[in-house]
Write a structure and sequence with these properties.
170 residues; alpha+beta; eight-stranded mixed beta sheet; 34% strand; globular
């Protein structure tokens, strides 16, 4: 597998790119944790403070350097609209994302998941995974728009029910 790309364009979204999250991007981690519904539907902790956001960014940089996974900033002309990325597991790679409310409804997450899946497919991956907590209709819609199908039900690390989705890559 090639090194994880530092930047990926978002097709159909002029001026928007996925750029590797760096330690200086801790502010977007803090911003997303403070969005009322992001901690509800993601792994962002609701009680994240500046020190925690800095640590979270550092850990993401180390994960990317170790090729365990990568988090990207969804960047529009220097404005961090959210994050998207993928992590390695025993079963392959799982994509994830979070977006500020004012950036939603533009197809940015759908574009990010499509770009990440395409890159993984070009690297020889045959399947990509996505998990949604039950009740997260917006993320379920992203999964469906990106060609994922329901694979199985499961349980989040905190005990909440979730759905695991899969997408075969060509």
């Amino acid at each position: 597998m090639d090194a994880f790309p530092v930047r990926l364009p978002l097709d159909g979204h002029d001026g928007v790119v996925l750029r590797r999250l760096e330690e200086d991007d801790w502010g977007v981690e803090l911003t997303l944790a403070r969005v009322h519904d992001v901690p509800t539907w993601t792994m962002y902790p609701a009680d994240l403070d500046e020190a925690g956001a800095r640590l979270r960014a550092q850990r993401n940089v180390r994960a990317a350097d170790g090729r365990h996974g990568i988090r990207y900033v969804i960047d529009e002309a220097g404005d961090a609209l959210g994050t998207a990325g993928f992590g390695r597991s025993a079963d392959g790679f799982e994509v994830f994302y979070a977006l500020r409310p004012e950036a939603r409804g533009r197809g940015l997450v759908t574009g990010a998941v499509a770009a990440l899946s395409a890159w993984l497919g070009a690297q020889g991956e045959r399947i990509v995974w996505l998990s949604t907590l039950d009740g997260n209709a917006a993320s379920e819609a992203v999964a469906e728009r990106c060609g994922f199908t329901r694979f199985r039900s499961g349980t989040h690390v905190d005990g909440r029910p979730l759905t695991v989705w899969s997408r075969r890559l060509e």
